[in-house]
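note to self: dont lose this again. the chain is below, predicted strucutre after it. 439 aa total, dont forget to put it in the shared folder this time
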Amino acid sequence: MSSDAGLQQEPARPRLLRALSAGDMLAVGINGVIGAGIFLAPATVARMAGAASTLIYLFAGGLVALVALCIAEAGSRFDRAGGPFLYARHAFGPHTGFQIAWFTWLARMTALAALADGFARYCAFLWPGLDTGWRRALLLCLLLGGLTFINAIGVRQGARTVNLFTLVKLVPLLVFVAAGASFVEAARITPSSLPTLSEFGRATLFLFYVYGGFEVLTFPAEEVVAPQRNIPRAVLGTQALVIVIYLAVHLVALGTLPGIAASATPIADAAQGFLGTFGGVLVTVGAVISIAGCQSGIMLTTPRLLFAVARDGHLPRALSRVHPRFHTPFEAVIVQGVVGLALALVGTFEGMAILSAIARMVPYLSTIAVVLVLRRREGAAPFTVPGGSLVPIVAAVLCIWVLLSGDWAALLLGVATAAIGSLLYVWTGRYSVKQSSDA
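---
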């Protein structure tokens, strides 16, 4: 396994470039969270809880904010690539670190596949037939192939693409909220009853997929300017903005669209109701751009996780190589694109989204534990969550409750996934690998 000292002894070896600014990271965060979910979740959560769905949006947003605080604190301790994998390995050892990397990568890859299916569905709204057969396959090959190429040839190119997608995707959502606010009917957003505790938990778990994704901000730490300052700021800034945007969009959709629970495209249908055909097309175009942008963010950040795990000795060493010209983890980007395309071709939005939500709970809980362990072992972090142990403990308890509220078949699949991760770890034969310097 490589260490920082070892890397310094090889001055000719290509290195990752610190080229991502604080603004770039905020764009990456917003782009990584706002994808297909914002255009589909209002109907799904309304089916689960009706008008009380707004309360679940608030609760889920608050809970994810507690998790974000913990990830921001953990991220402020490190300036190397890896995110939750790096934190868990540093605090608990290589086996736990590998498991967290495995679940984190699974969460991102299933999210990529879910987004791809959603992308094809929305494109079919504008051009029927693009969501089936060879047309769907060709569309996804062009999309993911293009994003793989962009992110392979340079981090700045990838960041510029993400920044553009972020700016463009927000415009239709802001128009939707501004134009629709005056059409909201108070009776539609006022709950007459509350969901059961079980329904509340299942809806919150679903919204973990919708609100999640901000953890990708920690993956490319070696390419961020002043990462110990800018990553916590980007994590917290992203989550604050996302909560406001999601809640506003949901309230307008819920308050303007009759029968929202039965809608397949609730935001487009609501926009068409108060803006006419132009509104429906505008939101649909926005959805296509939003989903493609979210995929672009995954293609920018997630290969850095493969890079970090390979450098640690638990994946083929080729994945840790940096291209001498482009200064990107070139092989990791290519592998990410190929595997993502394979899952996208066979997966569906619903199935991949559920698996992604459960998988990402594992690195969330691990990072919460890391915060408590490193506080005791190494003292205060550059950014420390106020309130002592209260925030991490409350976040952990609520996350476990939400996880147990999910489908037990899906939870058993998560256990099987962990077992596969252990087998992969054994297969690498690296139990005795020497620990590298993390900080």
